[in-house]
Amino acid sequence: MTQVLILNGPNLGRLGVREPEIYGHASMVDLEREAAAWGDALGLSVDVRQTDDESTLVGWLHEATDARAHVVLNPAAFTHYSYALRDAAAHVTTSGLLLVEVHLSNPAARESFRHYSVVAGIATGTVAGFGFDSYRLALEAVAHKLRG
Ligand code: DQA
Asked: Which of 6, 117, 119, 146 could be stapled to 72 by a disulfide with Cβ–Cβ 3.0 to 4.6 Å?
C-alpha cells in the first residue's frame, strides 16, 4: 500500500489546548484517528507523527525519501525560517515523491512573519486554512495525483 507520512512540527502536540480559537479543540490523537480513517478510504497507509525538534523532523523527511513515502507536512513555525527543513523537504520532492504543505490556519491572513513559507517553493502544493480538513484535502490530493 502507498505510504504517507503526516509530519507535524513544533507546538502541534498542544492541539486542542493551544489557542483553540485559531487551531480548534481537537487534539493530535483526534487527528491520528481521523487520518487513519481518511487513509483507509483512499487506500493510503498513513503514519501521523509530531515533534518539537527540528533535527527529528529533518530525519523523518530523510526516512520518507529513503522509504519512498509521500509526505503531508505541517512544519508549524519552522515553515517561516527553517532552511534545514526546506532542504530536507526539497530532497523529498526532487526524489520524485509528493510533499503537500498543510496548515490548520491560513498563515497569509495572520501576522506578517507568517506570510512567507520557506517550504512552499519546493512543495508539490499547499493546503491552508481548513483546520483538520487541510490534512484530509492534502491526502485526497496525494491519492488523486497518484491515480494520474
Ligand atoms: C501553523 C501556522 C504556523 O504559522 C504556526 O507557527 C503553527 C501552526 C498552522 O497549522 O496553521 O504552529 O502551521
From this structure: 6
